[in-house]
Design goal:
Length: 834
């Protein structure tokens, strides 16, 4: 019997072990004393994806190495010491990383309760048994319950505080902290439309730095959500490269949701919640946030309606007072044209007492020959039409007529039915008289303006033509003179002679420029290209332009820059022109071996002073008084002395106008003849918080190499110029510099050459006998990809602007020095990759 009993127990134990291995609804596996897997039941195979044959005999931490990182080998060690451990989801969430089998859960390890116990035989530990239970569903249901409870609490709070508040928009900050506490948000934004039709702007925000709030004031990425029907999700913001996400990144926001606030198709604003650490906002949270947003929208709409109603009541109060005090006649009538009410203005305008008008047909105010108007007016009013600015004639009690402007509107009852009309009549008799006088005056002014504009166009055309005719003959002479003056193969006396010719040609061109500049300034056609610039750099550029004359007269030049940060907002070219003019005058009127001093200073009013002093011939009081007057010259120019110094007396007049266009002023001072002269230019300093560093943000201009050593051999140039002398001289100089030159005297000839030859660059005059050089440049750019240099005798700023638009990279005003042409060629070639 005993043997049978023992066999029976072994069979029972074997059956139980087999059931655990195959059918147990939880995982069971055993380990030996080296923590090697001994058994691995079917549940473990199913949930781990690892077969028993694959894992038995291997160490558990070899199969699941993350047990070491998560420090979960300790319960196994304690089990070998005879201690039982229970691992809960609250502390560990799971023991082994098995995927949850719940379809509605996000992918991730199942939540587990694990029991780790020693395996005993006769009181001795010979291994470890681990039992794992899947509690994902139970924990998930608990989480959902707690989440729903928190959401219900938030909704209850929002309903009570938003819908019962007289100022719900001010409650949003408290609401945010309630939501943040329960739903883990760090930042919120509330955008509202202050009035119907106004732009949606930031009303309040939380969780961002104060200095950033102004950047979010009109942030399209969020504010434009108001036009949508559904919330907008902004996920994984740190990985977004679009520019519109830069501001969110600056505010440390990683994910956000923005919900439109709408009531009855009215866009009231946008409510946005954001997180600093989440990659995305869970979709299931949107229902709660949409409900809260709807509460807020309803409350804000209620508040807006209350405000509008209050405004309406106040407006009615004021309207009554306005109607009674108005000088216009305000009359109400029914659809039969009977007067129901009127104000004092109506009685005064038509010469009746109020009692005489009420109850009478409005036809008593209409002349007989205008009675048909009333029938038409009443028909239009019955159709709900509003009549505005209807000018006609009405009749006073004494029979006199007056011209009036009528505005007639339907009066509608609460059911929407038209029951009468409101008439507003304004006396326009005096206005009609004034309009007649104004019309006559306008016609006279129009004729005068047309004559003035015609004269002005004639003058502009004359100046442009005069400029062209004066400059063009100078061009070949200046090209030859500038080329020869720089040719060190010629004897020195010959080069000096050519240098003298060059200077005088440039002086002649400068006089033409002064005439044109003065014309532009006086007609308001000069345009400044203002940027932030250091006035010391402008002065340095101006000094370079007069270095040759300075050396020639052996003048000492002292530069004393006393202002640390001399930044102004101005046009560098025009300011350089001012300083160049003043410095040219100083050189012109200072004897040899004299001294010129340039200083910069600042005053207490944030003004920058540029002081240029010379030891020259000075000026008397009368000369100082007219020094900035156009065509005026000092007494030193009297009696033929002007031939000694040259000029037309325009330079300083132009300087004064240019400085005033920069909101500054220029003044001249002198102690008297032979005691030197001081010019002071005052400009407003640009205010900054700190001195800019001397870095590479403003790199120095590249030095122009005026030599021809670097010219690439066989660069093909098409030269288009109808002035024979200029064309021949320029072609000769270009060939001398190893350019392959094709010449044309018209657009037709240029087209033919361009079609038959491979060209690299275009040099073209603008005024050609059969068209305009701009049109030629545009055509060759579009057809062959050419870039070019424009030559013109006009020199107007509008000419330069048009040239840039069609493809001219450089614009040279005649007469041209060869060095400027070389520099322009290098610039064009670099941009054309020649």
């Amino acid at each position: 019997m005993g043997d049978k009993g023992n066999i029976s127990i072994e069979k029972q134990e074997s059956a139980l072990l087999s059931w655990i291995q195959q059918f147990a609804p939880y995982g069971v596996f055993t380990l030996d004393q080296s923590l090697r897997i001994k058994t691995w039941n079917s549940w473990m195979e199913s949930h781990s994806g690892l077969s028993s044959a694959h894992v038995v005999g291997r160490e558990l931490i070899e199969v699941f190495p993350e047990l070491v990182e998560r420090k979960l080998t300790q319960p196994l060690q304690r089990a070998l010491e005879g201690e039982t451990s229970i691992l809960s989801t609250a502390l560990h969430r799971y023991l082994l990383p098995f995927r949850s089998q719940l379809d509605y859960r996000e992918t991730g390890p199942m939540r587990q309760t694990a029991r780790v116990a020693p395996l005993l035989f006769e009181g001795q530990v010979f291994g470890v048994i681990v039992v794992i239970e899947d509690v994902t569903q139970r924990e998930s249901q608990a989480d959902n319950f707690h989440s729903q409870h928190r959401r219900d609490e938030v909704l209850s709070w929002a309903l009570v505080h938003l819908l019962k508040s007289d100022e719900p928009r001010k409650t949003i900050r408290q609401l945010f902290f309630k939501i943040a506490e329960n739903l883990d948000f760090d930042t919120f934004f509330l955008y509202l439309q202050e009035s119907q039709g106004s732009p949606i702007k930031l009303y309040t925000a939380g969780g961002i730095a104060d200095e950033l709030q102004k950047d979010f004031l009109e942030y399209p990425l969020l504010s434009e959500v108001a036009n949508r029907q559904e919330p907008a999700f902004f996920d994984s913001i740190y990985s977004r490269t679009e520019p519109e996400y830069t501001l969110l990144k600056k505010a440390k926001i990683s994910a956000a949701i923005a919900i439109p606030l709408k009531v009855d198709n009215k866009n009231l604003g946008v409510l946005c919640f954001a997180s600093w650490n989440r990659k995305q906002i869970a979709f299931e949270e949107s229902d709660l946030l949409k409900t809260i947003a709807q509460y807020l929208a309803t409350a804000v709409d209620k508040e807006n309606t209350a405000k509008e109603l209050k405004k309406f009541e106040e407006a009615n109060h004021w309207m009554g007072a306005i109607v009674e005090s108005s000088d216009d006649a305000i009359i109400s009538k029914d659809l039969d044209g009977v007067i129901k009410s009127c104000n004092k203005g109506a009685a005064r305008l038509f010469g009746y007492e109020i009692e005489e008008l009420i109850g009478k047909p409005i036809r008593i105010l209409i002349p007989n020959d205008h009675l048909a108007e009333e029938s038409d007016i009443l028909n239009r009013i019955r159709n709900g039409e509003k009549i505005e600015h209807f000018e006609t004639v009405r009749q006073r009690k004494d029979g006199s007529l007056l011209e009036v402007s009528l505005m007639i509107s339907p009066v509608i009852d609460v059911s929407g039915k038209v029951i009468g009309a409101s008439n507003i009549a304004r006396d326009i008799t005096e206005r009609r008289r004034a309009e007649q006088k104004l019309t006559e005056s306008f016609q006279r002014e129009k004729l005068a303006r047309e004559k003035a504009e015609s004269a002005n166009r004639t003058k502009d055309n004359f100046l442009a033509a005069l400029s062209h005719e004066l400059r063009t003959p100078l061009n070949p002479a200046l090209l030859i003179a500038s080329e020869s003056a720089a040719n060190y193969q010629l004897p020195e006396e010959v080069r000096l002679s050519f240098e003298t010719i060059r200077k005088n040609i440039e002086l002649e061109a400068s006089l033409i420029d002064d005439l044109l500049d003065l014309t532009r300034i006086t007609t308001g056609k000069i345009v400044l290209n203002k940027t932030l610039l250091n006035i010391h750099d402008v002065l340095a550029d101006a000094v370079k332009t007069i270095e040759a004359e300075q050396r020639e007269k052996d003048l000492t030049l002292d530069i004393k820059f006393g202002v640390l940060f001399a930044v102004v907002y101005g046009d560098a070219v025009r300011l350089q022109q001012v300083f160049w003019n003043v410095l040219k005058n100083a050189i012109k009127f200072t004897p040899a071996k004299g001294r010129i001093t340039i200083e910069t200073l600042d005053d207490v009013d944030q003004q920058l002073l540029i002081k240029i002093t010379d030891t020259g011939i000075g000026m008397n009081a009368d000369e100082i008084a007219r020094v900035f007057t156009a065509f005026a010259q000092g007494d030193h120019a009297a009696g033929g002395a002007s031939h000694r110094f040259g000029g037309l007396g325009l330079g300083l007049a132009i300087c004064q106008n240019l400085v005033e266009l920069h909101s500054g002023k220029i003044e001249a001072f002198s102690a008297g003849p032979n005691q030197g002269t001081t010019f002071i230019v005052t400009l407003p300093l640009f205010k900054v918080n700190k001195t800019p560093k001397n870095d590479d943000s403003n790199p120095a201009k590249p030095e122009t190499n005026e030599s021809s050593d670097n010219v690439i051999v066989e660069t093909s140039v098409l030269l288009v110029e109808d002035h024979t002398a200029t064309r021949d001289v320029m072609a000769q100089l270009l060939r001398r510099r190893n350019y392959k030159v094709f010449t044309a005297d018209s657009i037709a000839a240029a087209r033919e050459i361009a079609g038959e030859n491979k060209l690299d660059l275009l040099i073209s005059d603008l005024g050609l006998p059969d068209g305009n050089g701009n049109d030629l440049m545009n055509e060759l750019r579009m057809r062959y990809g050419l870039k070019g240099i424009a030559l013109t005798g006009y020199g107007m700023e509008e000419d330069i602007a048009r040239g840039k638009m069609v493809g001219f990279v450089a614009h040279l005003t005649k007469p041209v020095r060869i060095q400027l042409l070389e520099s322009a060629l290098l610039t064009v070639k670099s941009k054309a990759n020649v």
